[in-house]
Write a structure and sequence with these properties.
The complex is a heterodimer. By secondary structure, chain A is α/β, with parallel strands linked by helices. Helices cover 30% and strands 30% of the residues of chain A. A six-stranded mixed beta sheet of chain A has the order 5-6-7-3-8-9, with helices on both faces. Chain A has a four-stranded antiparallel beta sheet with strand order 11-12-10-13. Chain B is elongated. The chains are: A alpha/beta, B mainly alpha. Chain B: Keywords: Membrane, Transmembrane, Transmembrane helix.
């Protein structure tokens, strides 16, 4: 197992429990203030929980949302810092990341763009070859054009190494194809936790005439009504077909996340 | 951690080296009081070495970067404290050596604070004080001001009112010479004067009888026999320097303990509250909030100490 969290409370977080197997890629989603950063800081060991137990197996690297770096450090200095403060260090890998994304090595990070600073943070985190990699809003500083490339490169690295990756985001549209597990936080409560495939298989959307009740089995997550039709997103162990004029549709990860977040507000 | 400390603090070390060189130079110049030249050294350690050490990391959030590596927070700080403490020790030795040739053996107590042990004690105490203020306030300027204030008060109080009482003073007295004979001073030239005044027949201090108004005949009639002097002999100088050193070392150790404890209490990280989040229209309909818990997660694990 990569990460164990059991009954953890800290500030906004209330009684969170989940396990993430090693080598899994988990998306941690939730609105701002839902407790994503608190949860990641707990996993990173930067905070201690008020109650409950947190355990991350192996060496952990954490990249905070604001990508803090020493302003007078160059990229080379930052890598040396990583080399001197980690038990394992892969200089080639770290330098490779910087050259791939064209980050100047000799300029003080205070004079680099937010995106370049983010790449230095990633390079240090990847260079330390962690068993668990925690990324808080990793793409927030990046140009939209390179987000896909960065995501793919990060996923490639963690797949090669069997690294357990947890990345938080509030941009739901960036999720598809990234994570194999989902953690959904709303106001400090863990609403959804599980494998993406299982979650998609256990949620279904019913669309049909205006109605106050769902036409099929399952717990209604979200109901939407317009003048002409009703739509129910339900959670059910095994989706069943519904009678005409109702139609059942599979849900996308984005639909599922948005529905849960919308209800939680 | 030596490389990390050097890379992060090399300008501080270089600046202090310059200041130490100036202070040593000033020593060589005549008529410069010791407290101006050397009194500043411990204050520099407090204000510029200790106070920013953690506070600046908190302010610029670089502690998140530093503590996200394998090195633990405690070892990170211990590495810095050891490396910077060694540098301060070296500077104190340099200052001591620079002061050696100029100390006046005629009045050894005047150069009390130029001794190696006091210099080391002030520097370590200042550094630890700044660090504790840094860990507690997490604000560089506040920590600088606070540590300068506490450092100054501690040093002045001990130097002016504490030091002379480290050991009970030597008490000496002598009957006054008959009129016409010169009074011979009882205070040795290398002694530190503590108290003096009228002595009675037993040599004990006596309050001056008010009605006499300094008149010798009246004083003698009221039992005044001679004069006493309480002083610390020059031979105690090194002992007193060691006592003062010990006091500051104990204070420094306590402050270091405070700093490390404050560090371990955990990071007060800023809650996320930046850009607008998920678009959330007003929802309708019922909802089931299922808290999904992995059935595997039930096993109880020993509590992990936060790193």
């Amino acid at each position: 197992m990569g990460i164990h969290v059991e009954g953890v409370s800290k500030w906004v977080l209330r009684d969170c429990s989940f396990e993430l197997p090693s080598g899994s890629v988990t998306a941690l989603v939730g609105a701002n203030g839902a407790g994503k950063t608190t949860l990641l800081s707990l996993l990173a060991g930067l905070l201690s929980a008020d109650s409950g137990q947190v355990r991350a197996d192996g060496r952990v690297a954490f990249v905070a949302q604001d990508k803090p770096l020493y302003k007078h450090f160059t990229a080379t200095d930052a890598l040396s810092f990583g080399k001197h403060t980690n038990k394992v260090w892969d200089q080639e890998r770290a330098v490779g990341w910087l050259s791939r994304f064209g980050v100047p090595l000799k300029r003080a990070s205070g004079r680099l763009s937010g995106g370049q600073r983010a790449h230095i943070s990633f390079a240090v985190a990847l260079g330390s070859r962690p068993d668990v990699l925690l990324l808080d809003e990793p793409l927030s500083e990046l140009d939209p054009l390179v987000r896909k490339e960065v995501t793919a490169a990060l996923l490639g690295f963690v797949a090669d190494e069997g690294t357990t990756l947890v990345l938080s985001t509030h941009v739901v549209s960036e999720l598809s194809g990234v994570a194999d597990r989902l953690l959904l936080l709303a106001q400090g409560e863990l609403l959804v936790s599980g494998e993406v495939d299982d979650l998609l298989g256990s949620h279904v959307s019913y669309v049909g005439p205006v109605s106050t009740a769902a036409p099929g089995p399952g717990d209604v997550v979200l109901a939407r009504h317009t003048a002409a039709q009703s739509q129910f997103l339900v959670r059910t162990p095994s989706p069943v077909s519904v009678a005409e004029p109702w139609v059942s549709r599979p849900v996308s990860l984005e639909d599922l996340v948005l529905a849960h977040l919308e209800v939680a507000e | 951690m030596i490389w990390v400390t050097y890379r992060q603090h090399r300008w501080l070390v270089a600046g202090t080296a310059l200041a130490v060189a100036l202070m040593a130079l000033v020593r060589v110049l005549p008529r410069m009081p010791d407290y101006i030249s050397y009194g500043a050294f411990g204050a520099i350690a407090a204000v510029f070495w200790g106070a920013p050490l953690l506070a600046r990391e908190y302010e610029e959030r670089t502690h998140v970067f530093a503590w996200s590596q394998d090195v633990s927070q405690g070892r990170w700080l211990a590495g810095k404290v050891l490396a910077l403490g060694a540098a301060l020790t070296l500077f104190a030795v340099v200052l001591w050596l620079a002061g050696l040739g100029t100390t006046t053996s005629r009045y050894p107590w005047d150069s009390f604070e130029l001794g190696l042990f006091p210099l080391l004690g002030y520097a370590w105490f200042g550094f630890a004080l700044g660090l504790a203020a840094s860990a507690l306030t997490r604000r560089t300027l506040v920590a600088m001001g606070l540590s300068l204030f506490v450092f100054t008060v501690t040093r002045v109080v001990l130097a002016r009112w504490g030091r002379e009482h480290y050991l009970p003073p030597v008490h000496t007295w002598r009957p006054d010479p008959p009129p016409g004979v010169d009074y011979v001073p009882q205070l040795p030239r290398d002694g530190l004067w503590i108290d003096s005044g009228y002595a009675d027949r037993n040599g004990d201090p006596m309050p001056p009888p008010l009605q006499c108004n300094g008149d010798d005949t009246c004083l003698k009639a009221n039992g005044q026999i001679g004069h006493f002097v309480d002083y610390q002999p020059g031979s105690r100088l090194v002992t007193f320097q060691l006592i003062e050193f010990a006091i500051f070392v104990v204070l420094a150790a306590l402050l270091l303990f405070v700093a490390f404890r404050a560090l371990r209490r955990g990071t007060r990280s800023r809650p996320t509250g930046s850009a607008a989040g998920t678009p959330v229209p007003a929802g309708s309909g019922s909802s089931t909030r299922s808290r999904a818990t992995d059935p595997d997660a039930a096993s109880v694990r020993p509590e992990e100490e936060p790193r």
